[in-house]
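Re: that backbone. C-alpha cells:
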C-alpha cells in the first residue's frame, strides 16, 4: 500500500492516472477480472461493461455483479422500513448516536475534500 500525505500529490495521482495504471500495482486484479468476465480485459473495460449492464438491466445487474464480485446472494437491494425499525430496537441507542455522529463527520470531511480537489461539482 502506498501512503500519500500531500494533497497535491494525491490529487495528481488520482486525477492523472487511468485505472489500468492502478491495476499494475494491485496484485491479482487481472486474475479477478478474468474470473468475473471469463476473458482478459482491462479494468477500464470491466468498469464500462458493469456500467453498461447496470444501465440496461438495472437492479438485476447489480444483484448479479454483487454475487459475482462479492459473493453476496441478495434477493433485493432495498431494506424495508419495517426491517430498519426492527434493527433500531436491537441496537443500543448510544451506538446509534455514535454511528450517526461518525456518518455526519465522514460526510462533512468528504465535502471539504471534494472542494479542495476541485470536485465540488460531483454529487
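Recovered sequence:
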Amino acid at each position: 500500500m502506498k501512503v500519500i500525505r500531500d494533497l497535491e500529490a494525491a490529487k495528481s495521482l488520482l486525477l492523472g492516472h487511468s485505472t489500468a495504471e492502478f491495476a499494475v500495482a494491485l496484485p491479482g486484479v487481472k486474475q479477478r477480472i478474468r474470473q468475473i468476465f471469463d476473458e482478459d480485459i482491462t479494468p477500464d473495460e470491466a468498469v464500462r461493461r458493469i456500467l453498461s449492464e447496470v444501465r440496461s438491466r438495472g437492479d438485476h445487474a447489480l444483484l448479479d455483479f454483487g454475487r459475482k464480485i462479492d459473493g453476496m446472494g441478495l434477493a433485493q437491494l432495498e431494506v424495508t422500513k419495517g426491517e430498519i425499525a426492527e434493527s433500531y430496537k436491537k441496537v443500543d441507542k448510544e451506538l446509534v448516536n455514535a454511528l450517526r455522529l461518525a456518518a455526519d463527520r465522514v460526510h462533512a470531511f468528504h465535502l471539504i475534500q471534494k472542494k479542495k480537489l476541485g470536485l465540488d461539482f460531483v454529487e
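The mean pLDDT is 83. The radius of gyration is 19 Å.
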